């Protein structure tokens, strides 16, 4: 978008925002830390704490691929493809949302909304309206839901519906299996060794991911639980290893997952030509206004250990199959 008719100061703001976003969008760890630091500076933007905790899960999922279990279940090519899928979705969301957060930060600094600059940051018309709505009414819940809707729509076409990811990942047998077993679960740990969260089966479905995001926000900001999650985030450096939270468990799992930065390279992403999803996709009123409903318990400590046992069983089962094959 042509910036010529903007003031020199406005052009400088946009350049600075893009520079800062690129700097923080290096890998899963830099993104997770950027979201959490932002939340500590702007606790009214509660979505940024949700984003940091979901991003932690993204890092754990990446590192699991090279941990003690998945290399025995998936070949190297499939693991690489899964890593690139997580990484691409992670990168795209940050690339889209962090400029919005920085522009809001700047607006609060000068005490004047600067949202007329949002179109120059290539964000949807839908979210542009929502930021203006938030500035006038300070409805934190609505903004959180709007950001969840926006970011899930941002990854729908370039990741979920991308021909390569679709064929190699989302239509693969292991992904259907993972979906069915609810391994696609977002976890919020505490320093007391407890785990809360929610899972999604049907990850490919946009409305189901939006619904999951809303449920996760509801869990994360329950007044009774929020201080424990915040304490965990504050106290625990994000490395990508499951040990980040398994270290607090009373029962040791004996599971090993590596550190993200010693396992995966920095990926150089290319940006496709920008397309506004909200001009191509119908916005369902259910997304913004449908109330949150938890169909399953949110306390998942016991569930976590039973899932771990299922994975171990899966490994044993596969070993047996391989032995049978060689007999």
Description:
With 327 residues, the chain is mainly alpha-helical. 59% of the residues lie in helices and 3% in strands. It contains 13 helices and two strands. The chain has a two-stranded antiparallel ribbon. It is globular and about 70 Å long. The relative contact order is 0.13. Mean pLDDT is 90; it is low at 323-327.
Layout of strands and helices, then pairs:
Elements: H1 8-24, H2 28-41, H3 47-64, H4 76-110, H5 125-137, H6 140-160, H7 163-170, H8 173-180, E1 185-189, E2 195-199, H9 206-220, H10 226-235, H11 243-246, H12 285-289, H13 301-326
Antiparallel strand pairs: 1-2
Summarize the main sheet: 2 strands, antiparallel
Number of helices: 13
Shape: globular
**Helix share, percent:** 55-70%
Q: Kindly report how far apart the N and C termini lie.
A: 65 Å
Beta-strand percentage range: under 5%
Strand order of the largest sheet: 1-2
Number of strands: 2
Order of helices and strands: HHHHHHHHEEHHHHH
Radius of gyration: 20 Å
Low-pLDDT stretches: 323-327
Look at the helices and sheets and give the structural class. mainly alpha
What labels describe this entry?
single chain; 327 residues; mainly alpha; two-stranded antiparallel ribbon; 3% strand; globular
